[in-house]
Queue: 2 jobs
Job 1
Amino acid sequence: GENVEQHPSTLSVQEGDSAVIKCTYSDSASNYFPWYKQELGKRPQLIIDIRSNVGEKKDQRIAVTLNKTAKHFSLHITETQPEDSAVYFCAASIIWVYTNAGKSTFGDGTTLTVKP
Amino acid sequence: DTEVTQTPKHLVMGMTNKKSLKCEQHMGHRAMYWYKQKAKKPPELMFVYSYEKLSINESVPSRFSPECPNSSLLNLHLHALQPEDSALYLCASSQRFSGLVNTEAFFGQGTRLTVV
């Protein structure tokens, strides 16, 4: 099955600095890579996603890059703010054709702390 | 309406009790999921329903029994649980997987379950 590794497990940055979180995956059939932000006691919420036919995507201060050959993808947050502090999960998703259903495998998460 | 609603928000149950968790969405999504999340861990997939049919069962113990009565509702019936089953149970939904493309999963707020 799919295996997703996420690094680092914790990341502390100063407000205004950039933060980078990296994930690798094992199954070349994975075709969708979402990133979720989860604040303490709350639900995971999608912040950005990328499909396997795209190399880079940006949304204001957040960007994601994908290298299919190397099977890794990264989240970049620029100009970090204290409200960016949360746990961030990457995921790799694959379709199981015989069921027409999909499965997401999550990384272990990165706890980001942005110090004012 | 872009919400996935879960009830109850909190549940304390004894090991001999029978209870049910409920999930509802009105976004027309035809794929619905149950995840289990332990503290400081990623969501762990339990079940996937596609068009109200169980598509994926991730080897979940039979004391957890899912049910999808219609396209908007998803239940998780609980019976004879163990203390180690205490966790946050998250429901999610997404568009039907088509063209071998995954789509964003919307998560509910979760039910925090404590088994005593």
Note: Chain A touches chain B through 29 residues (CB under 8 Å).
Job 2
Amino acid sequence: DTEVTQTPKHLVMGMTNKKSLKCEQHMGHRAMYWYKQKAKKPPELMFVYSYEKLSINESVPSRFSPECPNSSLLNLHLHALQPEDSALYLCASSPRDREYSNQPQHFGDGTRLSIL
Amino acid sequence: AQSVAQPEDQVNVAEGNPLTVKCTYSVSGNPYLFWYVQYPNRGLQFLLKYITGDNLVKGSYGFEAEFNKSQTSFHLKKPSALVSDSALYFCAVRDVSGGSNYKLTFGKGTLLTVNP
């Protein structure tokens, strides 16, 4: 069992829909990450939150909107997505970001997103 | 800029034989190095890391990796492969001194198949 929980596991949405992905961890980690992963490719970093503040946005299109309501939760709000956005979206957490960069990131099992 | 190379897209070994998955890296400073494994329909699982000290690092599930600074390599090894080791393996690097904004850079991945 993973210590980072992502819901839903699967999501199918149309290009005009609005949906949200959720991520939760109870390890006391203060850094949380969103990654996008295409099949058999490495994860691509999208966003980093450190102490509930957005610290890195990897030039992600505005149709993806992250939110960190508290230290345990991370959301990714989706709106007007394109077919090329279909992918596995992974959430990860680590104790800190920069201060403890020798610590591994812990990943959830992801949300498999399909855009019709 | 930092980078990771996994020169083999795929590695096939027979069950019971030793396995090696290769990784070389490039960073401007000293590296933190990580290996992750991804099973089908799962997130990435942390296997082991090199931070400093002993060049031979032991990790989960009987895996180990050897850090070689002169060859800038961090190859993953296991003395006796199991069919259940079949998965996608990612090597990743972080710059100790904060290069690339402390981001974790992944290799492209190596698909390991262990044949019965």
Note: The interface with chain A takes residues 32, 34, 36, 41-46, 49, 51, 88, 90, 94, 96, 98, 101-104, 106-109, 111 of chain B (CB under 8 Å).
